[in-house]
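Usage example:
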Amino acid sequence: MQMEDMIMVSIDDHMVEPPDMWKNHVPAKWADQAPKLVRNEFGVDEWVFQGEATSTPFGLSATVGWPSEEWGYAAGAYTELRPGCFDVHERVRDMNANGVLASMNFPTMAGWNARTFAEADDKELGLVMLQSYNDWVIDEWCAAYPGRFIPCCLVPMWDIDETAKEVHRVGKKGCRSISFLETPHIKGYPSFLSGHWDPMLEALCDENMVLSLHIGAGFECIARPPEAGIDHLMVIACQVSVVTAQDLLFGPTLRAFPDLRVALSEGGIGWIPFYLDRVERHYDNQKWITNSEFGFGPTRPSEVFRRSILACFITDPSGLEARHRIGIDNIAWECDYPHTDTTWPESPEFLWKELQGAGVTDDGEINKITWENACRFYDWDPFEHIAKEDATVGALRALAKDVDTTRMSREEWRKRNEAAGVGVF
Amino acid sequence: MQMEDMIMVSIDDHMVEPPDMWKNHVPAKWADQAPKLVRNEFGVDEWVFQGEATSTPFGLSATVGWPSEEWGYAAGAYTELRPGCFDVHERVRDMNANGVLASMNFPTMAGWNARTFAEADDKELGLVMLQSYNDWVIDEWCAAYPGRFIPCCLVPMWDIDETAKEVHRVGKKGCRSISFLETPHIKGYPSFLSGHWDPMLEALCDENMVLSLHIGAGFECIARPPEAGIDHLMVIACQVSVVTAQDLLFGPTLRAFPDLRVALSEGGIGWIPFYLDRVERHYDNQKWITNSEFGFGPTRPSEVFRRSILACFITDPSGLEARHRIGIDNIAWECDYPHTDTTWPESPEFLWKELQGAGVTDDGEINKITWENACRFYDWDPFEHIAKEDATVGALRALAKDVDTTRMSREEWRKRNEAAGVGVF
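Running the assembly step on the lines above writes:
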């Protein structure tokens, strides 16, 4: 296999929701209460919901087209963004330019754990908008290009019954996953150990869907020094995935729901060999704690982990070297478009070099890591819609020869987009 | 090399301080205010200091001689312990039986961060007792067997000036390290980033001593779910070492003090390859944060890490496989006698098997891991006192043929020790 022959499926990217997303999905009764995009006096686009500005469309969340000197906290307008952030047609062109067949997208304005809707004072309104978001994801964003997007929805986590119902509802519509809090106890919700979420987990199993736990919602899980800059948060972010894995593995969750599948999104993979060594030693050496095998019985904790968990990486050279200690079936790749950590538009080069460097030269192993594990785990088959020979890096890039991947300043983007009427709402 | 030829130096063990430790070191004026061991109505030995019971001698802290079914939280008496926990002569016999040449010991009653003295209402009294503890460590415990113990002391962390003075004082007496808080900000002290501790760090550099940061004092750094059992804490404990490394590396500490050497005690090694991958990617990709290389300049963060940090492991098979990604000069071994995680009395078998399994078959690499890195880092030379041929696993074990390593119940230990007058104070 050569780089051009790879098939790349990313299980962690993000869309910046376009302002017209509510148009076709909010019932008439609620239409004028949908979130609205308003450009404020500073030229910043703000989402206004229930009379309050809830978020601006980016900051660090859509830096993909910019030189790194312009990354930062400053809010701005849609016109300053690379259009692939919010326009699905441009997104697919950008995926083609990067050789990426398919992608699962987490939200931006909604909060990748439904924050915007969960914080609504009027919970009925919150639920209506959350369902409208979900319908837009499935029926518009993902449906626009069959075989290119794995649908991922949100749940109304303030109400466990509605949450279970919403899992069933979106499951019936073809959704493959929900995005949820990696450490719910950190956000004031019951923990995974509490049993509170069991109806949701049961619904996910019933619908054969994946629980996707993206890093970020649990940052406060680790108490950083008051002087620590954003570096500390960014570098140690994946340590929270270790905490999540532990909560699920030594809490009852993964044993109570043997069919449950959990993706640790953007959590990296390199921490897993050390973690599995720790749990195996703990299982063997600390049985006094429960006077038993912690309820694992003959199925050792590393087996439960590998049965239930998919981890993914953007760049993770030592994790790839240790792939057999992780589990060759438990590793997927992600692109993280349009965030700062993305390797776009050189993901194939980046990934290929890293695979080669780690000695991943076997075609079977490469395929597992680049697409097979993701498609199996999410039970999602792009080849119902796209022939395999049209799905490779080489084939997709051939479609995208006219895509300009040059980085441009925010100001240049603004001029170009305004002239073309792109990002003007 | 064969297993019997290894030389083993452990940089993390613990002594359970014997009650007569204060006898020779507390100035007469304060003698009656030294901590006293009192057997309470339940037959539990308690350390009483300033009128309060501050700690019992164990619980989980001295399980070495017991079957694992008896491990747990129940407090007890010295007579229930394997005497090697508190008697230096018995300790050396136990080290011989385990083929261990040398050991660095952290405290138990004192708290391995001087907790007992730091919490004293009378700070002058706290300092007197802390200095008495330090003098006992150097002049009795370690001096009893030259070449067998690396002296490690405590500092009066409630007073930074006294802390710096104490580092100098014990350094002049031959101490090689101090034990300190891994995340001081978690215990209400200023963080490593604050600059508050700089006089201590400067003193350590002046005395060519090591800052040893043992896991445990920072457990609260990670917010666990309310239902989580001790498993969670035990399995993810080493994640706090990642936080510590980050605080030191991206805070100014390791760059401000290029001569500072920091040991992450009981922190494991397997997390390091992933962590170094993360910091290297961060250094290359996120320069926007500081508009520079985070102050690292041409010395990359992984180089600073390897220049400054020594990590150690009890059992860590994947870490050993990834030893060259960690740094072959940055890995040391530990025994963790007398805690539950110790591999005593089969540490040579355990370690040898793990080294072989990870492909560590080169004599040079084995020596670095088992003793050379430790001795270089702590600048401590056992061979001033003991010939190398007498320091091997085989040579030491030959001295210890009469040591009975059988596990016995607490009750059996109590009978045996009481009959022999051992542990009766």
